[in-house]
């Protein structure tokens, strides 16, 4: 089986991942607001950078996947699922007890992906994406609501 490695990204290297982050969050303005928060990891696959994950932290030992993007060249290969599993291990070992992630109501593939990765729907933030500067459409659906998922890290 091919190996996926999460490699910490140094602060001065974060902006080099900006275009990748935009694959998961189309608003440059919004990405700029959080790119320097939390912890960022590059997703390495066979030595190449296949994607990026950015995590932020909440009270009560909760970690959030703020942004996760797999380069189009590497999509559909199971790399995202392997990266999620690695992140479970990383944060469980550091004492976190829950991981959360949100995606748009219009992101049909993401809704399925996170459930297949073991997350459960926990909340809907109505009109979350209305604050974005430009409307986002996916699959012919306007992104309006944020669907939140959570996964306990026992």
From TrEMBL:
Any matching Pfam family: Acetyltransf_1
GO molecular function, one term: N-acetyltransferase activity
Record's keyword terms, sorted: Transferase
Annotated signal sequence range: none
CDD domains linked to this entry: NAT_SF (cd04301)
Keyword NADP appears in the UniProt entry: no
Domain N-acetyltransferase: 4-154
Superkingdom per UniProt: Bacteria
PANTHER family: GNAT FAMILY N-ACETYLTRANSFERASE, LD18367P
Protein name stated in the entry: GNAT family N-acetyltransferase
């Amino acid at each position: 089986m091919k190996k996926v490695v999460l490699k910490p990204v140094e602060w001065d290297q974060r902006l080099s991942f900006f275009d990748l982050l935009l694959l998961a969050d189309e608003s440059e303005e919004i990405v700029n607001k959080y790119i320097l928060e939390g912890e960022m990891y590059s997703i390495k696959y066979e030595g190449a950078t296949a994607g990026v994950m950015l995590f932020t932290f909440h009270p009560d030992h909760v970690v959030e996947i703020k942004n996760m993007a797999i380069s189009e060249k590497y999509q559909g290969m199971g790399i995202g699922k392997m990266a999620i599993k690695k992140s479970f291990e990383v944060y469980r070992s550091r004492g976190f007890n829950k991981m959360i992630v949100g995606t748009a109501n219009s992101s049909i593939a993401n809704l399925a992906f996170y459930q297949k990765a073991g997350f459960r729907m926990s909340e809907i933030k109505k009109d979350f994406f209305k604050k974005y500067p430009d409307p986002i459409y996916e699959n012919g659906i306007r992104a309006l609501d944020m669907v939140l998922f959570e996964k306990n890290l026992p």
